Structure formats: C-alpha cells, structure tokens
Amino acid sequence: MGNVAVMAKELVKWFGEEDAKTYAVRGVSFDAHFGEMLYIVGPSGSGKTTLLSMISGILRPNKGSVVVEDKDIWSLTSDEIAEFRLSTVGFVFQDYHLFPRLTTLENVAIPLILKKLDWNESIQVAAKFLEIVGLKERAHLPPVKLSTGEQQRVAIARAIASSPDLLIFDEPTASLDGETGRRILDFVKKNILNERRCIIIVTHDNRIFEYADKIMKMSDGKIMDVEKGGSDEE
Amino acid sequence: MKGILKIAYKLLVNDKGKFAALLVGITFAVFLMVMMTSMFAGILHRSSSTVINIGAKVWVMDSAVNTTANNIPMPDYILDAIRSIDGVKYAMPLYSGAALVKLRNGVYQSVTVVGLDDTSLYGRPELIEGTIDDIYAENAFVVVKDAEFEKLGNPTRGTEFEINDHRGVIVGIARVTSSGLFGVPTLYTTYKRAIQYIPSMRYTVSFIMIEPKSSDAVPYIKKQVALLGYEALTKDEFTQKISRFYKYQTGLGINLLLMTVISFVLGLSISGQTFYTFILENLDKFGALKAIGAKGKELVYVILFQATFAALTGYGLGVGVASFLIAMAKLRLPSYAARITYANLGYAFIMVLIIAGFSGYIGIRKVLRIEPFDIFRG
User: Fold this and answer.
1) Which part of the chain is the ABC transporter domain (chain A) (predicted)?
2) Which of these, A213, A193, A148, A201, lies nearest to A170 by C-alpha position?
3) Which residue of B has its CA nearest to A99?
C-alpha cells in the first residue's frame, strides 16, 4: 500500500436547520492510499455521495477536515479549491455530463483547456488519452453518437486528461450492463490505476466488487465496516 | 482564456436551433429599431430640407417660428437694419410659402414656392435643365426634380400652369440635396414675383439669410438681431430647432420612440427567453465544468462571450437587412424618407448591448447558483 492520498477526519454533514436538520454523514474518518481502489458502498441515502463530495472539494463539511496530499482542502479559498479540483481530482459522473455540442475529443480536452493549455496542445494531449481508452477513431463524433459504454470511457479519458492523483467515480456502472461494467472496471484497474493515483468509487453494484482493493460500507451516514476487496492479494 | 472562449463559441454555435432562434430574435429587434429610427431620421432631415437646400449660414426669423413651413413674415426694414449690423457681409430676403397651381389638365396641386432675392438669387438650386438667368423671364419658375416632381405632370421647360390667376411657365429643372417633407412639389422664382403672385400679409419677408464676414461675428450678429426683436440662428441651430419641434411638439417623436421601445422589448424578451432556455438546458454541463475546476469568473466569461457574440452577430445581420431593404425601397420609392445615420446605428448598438447584458445577467445568475454537488446528486 502506498502513501496516504486522502485523510478524512470526523466528517460531519447535515442539511437543513432546526426541525428540518437531517444528518447525511455522521463523524466519518478514513484514509485512502495511492495505488488503491477504494469502494464506498451502501444503500441509497447512506451518505456515500455526500462523503465523496466532501473529500473531492465539492461540498464543504459542517465539521471535520479533509487532507489531500498534506493539504487541508477546506482551509482553501473557493478559487483555490477550484484549482485543487482541476489539478488533483478527476471526476467521472454518474450521467457522464459530456457536452453534446462538442466532439468527443473536445470533451476530453476540457480540463486541459481549463488548465490554460493552448487549444491545439489540449487537443493533441486529449487525443492521447482518447487513444488510451480505445476511442481514437471516435474522436470527431459527438458523444451522443457513442454507446453508453463508450461515453463512459470518454468520461474516464476526460477525468484522467489532467493527470489527477485522485480519481472519483460516482456510480460508474449505473447505466451499463453487467458485462460492460466489469470490462470498464477491469480497464480502469489495469490501465488507469497506478502507484501515484488513488481511485475512489461510489457504487452499490456488487458485480464489480471484485476489482476493489478496499470496500468501505456505509449506512445511515456512518462507516459500518471496512473490508478488503476482491482484488486484494495481501 | 482563448481556449475557454472557443469552447463557449462551439457550445453556442453548434446548438443550431437555439443559436438560430437567438439570432432571429436579435436580428428582428435590431432591424425594427434601425428601421424606426432611420425613418425618423429621414423625416427630420426632410423637415429641414429648405434650410439644407438654401444653405445660408445664418437665418433670421420671428422667434415663434419653428419650421420653414410656417413662417411669420417680417417687415422690410428689418432687412435694412440687419444689413447695417457690423459683421454682416450681406443679407438677403427669402420668401417661402404655399400656393395652389392649376395644371393644364385642370387639376389643382399644392406647391411650395421659394422666392429668391432678385439681384443675387442667393440660395438658388443647381439646374439640370435650363439656365438660372431664365428665372428673370416673364412668369418664370424653376421646378425641382424630386420625389414630388411627377405631381406636376412631369413638366418640361415651357410647361405652363396657372397660379393664383397668373400664368406660370417652367423655365428650368433643378435638383436639390434634400426632398421636402410634405409631399408637395417645389417651385423657385424671384422674390418679387413670389410676393406678387401669391397672396400675402402686410409683411412679406419669410426669412432673412445672412452671410457673416466671419464665424466670429455670428454671436454679435445674433445679439443685435435679438435687440431688433427677432432671432438669428445658424444653419445647424435652425435644423435642430426644427428637429426639436417635430420630436417634441407633434407627437411624431413619441410615437416613433414607442415603436422603437416596443422593438427593443420584443428583442429583449425573445433573446432573453431563448438564452435563458439555452442556459437551463446546459445547466448540468456548467455544473460539471464547475466540479471539474472551472472558476466562477471563467463561467461568467463563457456566458458573457456567448451573449455578446449572439448579440453582435444579430446586430450585424439586423443592420445589414435594414440597410438592404432601405436601399431597395429607395430604388422603388423615391419619396421613401428613411435615412441610416451613425447615431441610429449607435442607439441600436447600445440597445443590443443592453439585450446582451440582460441575457448574460440572467444566465450568469443561474450558472453561479448551481452547486457542483447537485451534479453528483443528479
């Protein structure tokens, strides 16, 4: 196991106030390491997505801290957090959120463009990542012309285009059939995960548990159990 | 920043349906605004046609006079008094009045008769047929070949008509810079013949035209004329006075202003609504951009760029369509008064910037409020 990539301490998040106050996450602490594929699993409403949002710099916790690569991210300004997300975190959203009016290649280039790379350079780099996910030939098609599995791979290419240390997958197999889901996760495990990268996946799809290094089970905003995943050989 | 703007451009332009709807809305609004203000500018320009065509530098009139069409005649001695003012190089009388002419076919036609100073013919038009000296011939009139020319039966030199029981003869055909506003033909003759042929009041001098020795002398001349109980205005001041009269005292200005405001509101609502829908449809994508790491100001640039690009493209198209139609209309309808001025284009440009600002504002408000967490929650 590599160094600690993410250190979450006593994270608490609630929504609403007074009578309407609802706790989504109740004092969660955990570490995620480089070279590790960590699954956060649990039923709907267990606080998985809220926890994921807090550790990726999207949702400010009410209590607790998140340290990523020795940096307490919630002590940063909003612009610094945006910069942190851009340079350190790659997102693969459940619905992918690809831009239908841009080509596949341009979609992948977005994080690079946000990092102020020149347009042509961004496109060249994006093409390499599109090749990694095996969609070089689809580069100039709009995402709507691709299958769901291909769109998933485009989203992965976009997420890794800025070479982030932390990759966040939100329900990556929710729109995929079992076989495609497994193939995607196998691809991620073999090609995207490395010793300088940590991947955190929120899912309740037990068909892909075999690829996890560690599975963190959540219920009612708390971590109920942490298990070694199906791929852990230690 | 160039890269993100290129993304913004592609997001806007590749959504062909929305982009077309935005352009149609803005183009239509700009077209209407330019047409309305151009028509108004054309009307105002024509309302000052006598001032423009005669071209005198300083005009003396009763201070109650608002246009060249309604003048209050001045006594002859005022002309003498003005000629004696220091700084006046020369001063000439001008007659301007309405009359009815009876054509050879028996039809009566209203005309404007301009009587030029007999000795100098100061303010004479440029002749395209005949010579100006022919104006001294018996019963001689020079007709202006403008949009109203054919109302006199397309006269030629030698064409006769009757004016207040006097015989009139066309001795020359002239052209002028600007046609008149009221749709009546214009006849030039000498001052003496004009007051002799057309029934007039006790005093006969409609305007006194002054050529100052220098432009520095104008303030002094104006002061001296005021002491005589009259008003001296430079050509530009008189034109502005006429414009102010039509703008504020005839209802013309307020009506055209209302039409222009309606065009603006129309454009504002079409483009505002379309742009808002465009933003709403892409809201999750903007949220995703935010989650990926786009800063608020970058999203503001994206939206402002899209709104401004759509607005300026619509502005160009609107001005182009309006110019083309006005040019076409002028070829077919010589009396069509519309006139595109830099001021009109400037007003339309400001309006279009307001449309872009408003559309951008509602888009920015929406996008800045979206939380990336909402993207995760779906």
Assistant:
1) 6-234
2) A201
3) B285
CA angle B329, B333, B339 (to 5 degrees): 55
Residue A71 DSSP SS3: strand
- How far from the centroid of its chain's Cα atoms is residue B113's Cα? 24
CA distance A234 to chain B (A): 33
Residue of B nearest to A106 (CA): B7
Q: What is the token pair recorded at A110?
A: 């977005």
Copy the structure tokens of residue B27.
């183009």
Q: pLDDT confidence of A207, banded at 50, 70, 90?
A: confident
Task: Please give the residue of chain B at the shortest CA–CA distance from A44.
Answer: B377
A114 vs B289: CB contact, 8 Å cut-off? yes
Contact A53, B373 (CB under 8 A): yes
Distance separating the N- and C-terminal Cα atoms of chain A: 10
CB contact under 8 A, A102 and B10: yes
Query: Per mean pLDDT, which range of A138-147, A176-185, A189-198 is the poorest?
Result: A176-185
Across chain B, which has 378 residues, the per-10-residue mean pLDDT values are 86 89 88 88 85 89 88 91 94 91 90 92 89 91 88 90 92 85 88 88 90 93 94 94 88 82 81 81 84 89 91 94 92 81 90 86 87 75
Cα–Cα dist B339/B326, whole Å: 8
H/E stretch holding B83 = helix B76-83
DSSP, residue by residue, A99-163: -TTS-HHHHHHHHHHHTT--HHHHHHHHHHHHHHTT-GGGTTS-GGGS-HHHHHHHHHHHHHHT-
Chain-chain contact of B289 with A93 (C-beta, under 8 angstroms): no
Q: What is the ipTM of this complex?
A: 0.84
The top-level CATH class assigned to A37-57+77-228 is alpha beta
